[in-house]
Amino acid sequence: MSLADLKKAVKEEKLVFGTDRTLKMIRKGKAKKVFISSNCPKQVREDIKHYATIAGIEVNELKEPNEELGIICKKPFSISVLCY
């Protein structure tokens, strides 16, 4: 289900990539959903979950690693965290 949501968001081109930018969007309350790769660092994962819980934003932990997440998003780099 969450991977389907991600593919839909890729088509609509409303994604924000990166830990810092995603955290900023969460703090501002502008993020709707957050996606985390399977091999995202533990501390980053905990920070994202903490702030998202406070803001009431859904967090989807994907089973895909960051390299595959980059391919799904049609980017030439690995992506550990993204939101829309």
Task: Write structural notes for this entry.
By secondary structure, the protein is an alpha+beta fold. The chain has 4 helices and 4 strands, in the order αβαβαβαβ. It has a 4-stranded mixed sheet with strand order 1-4-2-3, covered by helices on one side. The protein starts with a helix and ends with a strand. The model has no long low-confidence stretch (mean pLDDT 92).
List keywords for this structure.
84 residues, 60s Ribosomal Protein L30, Chain: A
Note the main sheet.
4 strands, mixed
* Alpha-carbon Rg, integer: 11 Å
Q: What's the tally of helices?
A: 4
The run of helices and strands is HEHEHEHE
How many strand elements?
Answer: 4
Are there runs of 5+ residues with pLDDT below 50, and where? none
What fold name stands as the CATH topology? 60s Ribosomal Protein L30, Chain: A
Percent of residues in helices: 40-55%
- Quote the average pLDDT: 92
Strand order of the largest sheet: 1-4-2-3
Give the CATH level 1 class.
Alpha Beta
Number of domains: 1
